[in-house]
Amino acid sequence: MNYDKVYGCNVMKSVKSQETIGSCSISDLASQCYYLWKNSRLENLCLTPEVCDLLMQLRSKYKLLLLTNGEAQTQREKVEAVNCEEFFDAVVIAGDHAEQKPFPSIFQLCFNKLEVEAWDCVMVGDSLDTDVQGGFNAGVRATVWIHRAEGSVLDGPVKPDYTIPTVLDLPRILAQLQNCTCE
């Protein structure tokens, strides 16, 4: 989903509607644009059937927790729009707490919610700076970076234990970790 394109289309709709309605203050126009963008963005958020199947499969074997950074109300709206709570044992919106990823305290809260130790956990995410670094800071067993861009090279200080192009490849990594007896 190209959110810039969705946002751009909604700005144009809003501007065109102002031409037919009459004059409007810039702040009213900006509010209307934001409202259209936000609603379009939420309407277009979804999990594919394959991802839903994967989450159900994983939840039958593992405890799953969704940890998301950001302003609490915005993140809550996204979680509700995707209707994904059923796939997780717990959902933690870091904006409701004093610290967000990559701080260890938010991860410790998650470990406590699931009644697990850090070493029993795998952090899966799409951000090196918050997800992967946070996993390292919290002492999880492994970090998995979902990296969709082809051909780019990791050149920063944060190096995930595993990199996959799609979350659908996660079972392969979990199988490797299950077979590994190293500590």
Task: Map the helices and strands.
Elements: H1 3-21, H2 26-44, H3 49-59, E1 65-68, H4 72-82, E2 90-93, H5 104-114, E3 122-125, H6 128-138, E4 142-146, E5 162-164, H7 170-179
Parallel strand pairs: 1-2, 3-4, 4-5
Helix pairs in contact: 1-2, 5-6
Q: What this model shows, in words?
A:
The protein is mainly alpha-helical and 183 residues long. It folds into 2 domains: 3-44, no CATH class; 49-179, Rossmann fold (3-Layer(aba) Sandwich). 50% of the residues lie in helices and 11% in strands. The protein has 7 helices and 5 strands. It has a 3-stranded parallel beta sheet with strand order 3-4-5, with helices on both faces. It has a two-stranded parallel ribbon with strand order 1-2. Helix 1 packs across helix 2 and helix 5 crosses helix 6. The longest helix has 19 residues, at 3-21. The N and C termini lie far apart (40 Å). The model has no long low-confidence stretch (mean pLDDT 87). Keywords: Hydrolase, Magnesium. Its cofactor is Mg(2+). This is N-acylneuraminate-9-phosphatase.
